[in-house]
Specification:
Helix content is 68%, strand content 0%. The chain is elongated and about 95 Å long. The protein is an all-alpha fold. The chain has a domain of 85 residues.
């Protein structure tokens, strides 16, 4: 038997590896435009903003004008409730926890402060 050249052994080895590799393209799944934004998540965001607005209106009408620091204490229970029910709320965002937390907490805070400043400016 003759010794094989280095190049010939490489060709044989690489062809054996290529036979074991699956070169088929993966099946493409239908991807929605943005799975985290749907009707249920939009409704949850609107409800969160409405709760924030209600709390902001109540706080603006009841708290003294010079006690802006108290707004954090008014927001805290809403944010705690968000964390308590977070597992249920994530389902509304198709399991995207980051999108759920960002959208809901942002909606609560935005609704609160928009209403706070609107009531205070009257």
């Amino acid at each position: 038997m003759q010794p094989q050249s280095r190049q010939h052994r490489y060709v044989i080895a690489s062809s054996a590896e290529n036979d074991a590799v699956d070169n088929r393209q993966p099946e493409r799944r239908e991807t929605p435009g943005d799975a985290s934004i749907n009707l249920r998540s939009a409704a949850a965001t609107v409800v969160a903003a409405a709760l924030g607005a209600i709390a902001g209106g109540l706080a603006a009408s009841k708290l003294p004008d010079d006690k802006f620091i108290w707004t954090g204490f008014v927001l805290a229970p809403l944010l705690v409730l968000l964390e308590v029910f977070f597992k249920r709320l994530v389902a509304l965002f198709d399991g995207n926890a980051n999108a759920a937390r960002l959208m809901l907490a942002g909606a609560i805070v935005a609704g609160f402060y928009v209403t706070w400043f609107a009531v205070r400016s009257l």
